[in-house]
Amino acid sequence: MDGGAAERPSRTIEAMTSTSDNSSVALPPMRFDLWGTADEAKPLSDSIKKLLSQAMGVDTDKDHTVDAASVTLTEPRLSESAVQDLERIVGAKNVSQDREQRMARARGKSSLDLLEWRSGDVVSAPDAVLVPGTEDEVLAILEYCSEHEIAVVPFGGGTSVVGGVNPVSGEFDAVISVDLRRFDAIEDVDPVSGLATLGAGLSGPHAEFLLAEHGLQLGHFPQSFPYATIGGFAVTRSAGQNSAGYGRFDDMVRELTVVTPKGVFHPGKQSPASAAGPDLKEIVMGSEGAFGIATRVRVHVHPIPQVKRYEAFVFPSFGVGADALRAVEQQGTGPTVIRLSDEIESAINFTSSDAIGEKSQAPQGCLCITVFEGTYEHAESRHKETRELLLASGGTSVGEGPARKWEEGRFGAPVLRDSLLDAGALCETLETATDWANAPRLKKAVGDALATSLNDSGTMALVMCHISHVYATGCSLYFTIVAGQDDQPLAQWRAAKQAVSKAIEANGGTITHHHAVGTDHMPYMTDEIEPLGVEILRGIKRTLDPAGILNPGKLIPAGAESNPS
Amino acid sequence: MDGGAAERPSRTIEAMTSTSDNSSVALPPMRFDLWGTADEAKPLSDSIKKLLSQAMGVDTDKDHTVDAASVTLTEPRLSESAVQDLERIVGAKNVSQDREQRMARARGKSSLDLLEWRSGDVVSAPDAVLVPGTEDEVLAILEYCSEHEIAVVPFGGGTSVVGGVNPVSGEFDAVISVDLRRFDAIEDVDPVSGLATLGAGLSGPHAEFLLAEHGLQLGHFPQSFPYATIGGFAVTRSAGQNSAGYGRFDDMVRELTVVTPKGVFHPGKQSPASAAGPDLKEIVMGSEGAFGIATRVRVHVHPIPQVKRYEAFVFPSFGVGADALRAVEQQGTGPTVIRLSDEIESAINFTSSDAIGEKSQAPQGCLCITVFEGTYEHAESRHKETRELLLASGGTSVGEGPARKWEEGRFGAPVLRDSLLDAGALCETLETATDWANAPRLKKAVGDALATSLNDSGTMALVMCHISHVYATGCSLYFTIVAGQDDQPLAQWRAAKQAVSKAIEANGGTITHHHAVGTDHMPYMTDEIEPLGVEILRGIKRTLDPAGILNPGKLIPAGAESNPS
Asked: Which Pfam families is this protein grouped with (chains A, B) (predicted)?
């Protein structure tokens, strides 16, 4: 059984009730300039510091941390009467213009976001934070803001790594952040059908904690799990580490309650599957708050597994390992988790994080992790069929140790990034997906683009890659990059990201497999979905959000960008 | 191995090359007033005739067959210049105003369609039939028709049972049927990724025949398989009998080529899964030709299975059997086919069709069919785990015989309907889906509504039901109805269908699980997807088909209907 779900909520729930001004608005648990909370921070080991300074030219003695008091935010711009009107809608205690509240919702958690705090630039913050508690209140906010030309940014866990929660005003004079945290109930638990309705503001751990009281589990564990919310998972098409067994989050969603400026609707309400026209759930999922605000999500849940089985394997090369994962998925042998690291990531995984940079006696090759959940019989039979196929496909078992170690550390990488950024290193992740046959070409193209761009900026770059989501027809490719910062790290990373994004579009990948679009991937959407696809999204937006107040400047490219001719 | 795919294409391909006028336009293989071809017709046995006459008051000696020469069609309405313009686009040999060609595309295959031929009423036919061969030609047709106010109905296999191919002119003065049969190629076969691009006009057997040359299979076997096309499967969200193993057709689609009046686009082109905004494939699937014409579909294919294993079970009641199917799907034991008939359908299934109405020594209870495909090892392990769970859930094995018998006869039921209609009986099917917990309530409500309405019309009704598609959270319910026709069988069935449709919407079902919307389910779409859902579909249609020429009067309710207030 996975202890993760049961252990984590207490801290998060506690953090959610802390407050810093007269309102009762709670602060998000993540520190404004870090992924984790301050007490999660972990200093870098001497061996990592040596690697950074010797190979990447990073001066690790220089302090890159941010002093909150020295940050300059934009001034709040809402008129007093607008604030009073909004207070009438949600109650005064659910509106805040407090600096700390605005700062906590001014940026997501991409490395660009975190570097921006460190840049000394003035940071755009939302002009106010609202915390509605009912669909009627959300609707009233959207109607008011449509009439008074105020942009609205929905806010869940604040974990976006693509600029999704950043307070872009667009053509409007002000922008508010609408925090969904009061939608935190679990309703309509139907253990027969395996369905539960969850408030959009519930964090991953909080949702699992409430489901566990019914003996049920959602089983969605993306790296953002400790902080991200049910609503955010749905509208960004999140994919979790158990996707091989339980699907992506969009596979788990049965119905959504969506509040738009034109009213409320419930796509998916009818049935598990339907031929009654286009699937409107699939329009809301991926809409990133640009069409409406999801307040409740009815999801597929399943009994807490009786057992978990673990086994790790090593493959002689990434190509051989990828072929083995493909065989497993195409045969349907049924692992809950299956993932494969490339040679570089495997070498790092086989090393304890304290010993990175040291010489290691770990096995050579590419590490593959498998986990099997379910009843005793089901997990055993799935494990047996999978391991036989992996062994027949060139794998060697290395026991359960590396799989258990992976699971224990699986939410820790973003916290390590905090320390790397504080030490003056660049650290970021990016991801794509493609057909199995195209995966080698795409992996090489991405790696080359990153190495070239970062080498041009004067640093060696460590590029690691893994497959963590498999489909019958293809797989994801997830890259982690560590390099040295130059004098202008924001520009340095933007150049690398642009180079790699162009390489992805030119080599048959999607611009994002599970991080969503936000501001950062918007310039590539016309290539991704073609001009007619952009027109469709605009048409839907005109229908649901005619004033255009919902999350402007994200997801849907503006006019000029959609016709590059 | 399933022989069905390899046996059938020859006849269909042959029928597709027959022609009846100076053009080279081929006639669809199905006879205009029947599901099957004339040589498939099978006379009713004496025992069935006795059942019809004694229990349902049907005078089986009366002849209800249709004389083609006596049918009155609407006159062609295209101007000579319009015909010349259209001939310039696709070539004169690919345009026909011939009576037989128009008649063959005047109606789909619902019982209402088939009864209408028998009613003596004037039948609306398309004003011309066009058979384009390239996306450029399709685009030119759509641009021309947008400019000249001609409605366009895409035509694949003509198997719609909801009015989907019927030539509704809407607000326009003329309507043409655009037959996709020339999009009949297989391209881009990628056996590594398990992907193949299929022409939208390929019939099910023809597609399987071409894939088999590569050792591959699609595995989509709806009852319409012998005639329906790849494009039709996609835009109507078809579900086949192997859906437990291979998914619905919408699960199989990776990418579509869609020609709209505003241009061509390719939703899904990027990758097996993406977080780059809403999934635009899901807008095209279910759009039933109202947004554009699908010309190519890239689908997930898999190796032809090494082995097929069969086993049938009997459950003491439908409720116990449904719980067993639910356990199988929620545990994920992996059958390729799993279905359960209720008591009445089981009794009929256990009887040979020649002996319906006779006393039978067959097992009592509800018949469950399972089939397992794949490699030897995979099929065996999935079979073992599934059978153990079914036995533990109250099932009794009755060996492989009934499962093989089901497979042999699985495309035959619509042909039997032809004979029943010709004999003066009513025979129709309808289907819905819902959560597992709600299935008993919905099944009872549908059965009651049918019995009440048909009894009111003066006939006893035989109502059979089965579950043929299972999901983790719910299942389909498929009903077959046999009753006696009264003097006005069209009005009689319309009243029954309205009663049952209202019962479905009032009892938590979807108006259609896999038959699509067309004209027949359109009145229920506002209940199904809410007024805001209808507005979204209208907004998409305005974007892609601003003149509104594509399949008017189908899928999307017109103004007044969408706001029942």
From this structure: FAD-oxidase_C, FAD_binding_4
Listed by number, the residues of chain B in 277-306 with a beta carbon closer than 8 Å to a beta carbon of chain A are: 277-288, 300, 302
Q: What is the pLDDT of residue A61?
A: 84
pLDDT at B20 over 70: no
A400-403 long-range Cβ contacts below 8 angstroms, 24+ apart: A400/A309, A400/A310, A400/A311, A400/A312, A401/A312, A402/A312, A402/A349, A402/A350, A402/A367, A402/A369, A403/A310, A403/A311, A403/A312, A403/A369, A403/A370, A403/A371
Catalogue all structural domains in chain B, each as residue range(s) with its CATH number: 65-179 (3.30.43.10), 186-302 (3.30.465.10), 307-409 (3.30.70.3450), 412-513 (3.30.300.330)
Q: Do A381 and B385 touch (CB under 8 A)?
A: yes
Give the 3-state secondary structure of residue B207: helix
Q: What is the DSSP letter of A122?
A: P
pLDDT digits (tens, 9 = 90+) for B405-448: 999 988 888 888 998 998 999 999 999 999 999 999 999 999 99
Task: Give the residue, A43 or B495, on which the prediction is more confident.
Answer: B495
Put simply, the chain B residues between 154 and 213 with a CB less than 8 A from any chain A CB are: 190, 192-195
Placement of tokens 């007033």 in the chain: B33
Which residue in A has a C-alpha nearest to residue B189's C-alpha? Answer: A437
B364-390 pLDDT per residue, tens: 899 999 999 999 999 999 999 999 999
Binning chain B into helix, strand and coil, the percentages to the nearest 5 are 40, 20, 40
Chain A segment 404-443 residues within 8 A of B by beta carbon are 432-438
Say what the pLDDT of residue A507 is. 97
Cβ–Cβ below 8 Å for A472 and B302: yes
- ipTM comes to 0.94
Which of B223, B246, B271 is most worth mutating to test chain A (most A CB atoms within 10 A of its CB)? Answer: B271
Q: Could you tell me the pTM of the whole model?
A: 0.94
Asked if A513 lies within 8 A of B271 by C-beta distance, the reply is yes
Which residues of B are annotated as part of the binding site for FAD?
154-160
Name the residue facing A473 among B260, B272, B525 (closest C-beta): B272
Q: What element of type H or E holds A347?
A: helix A343-349
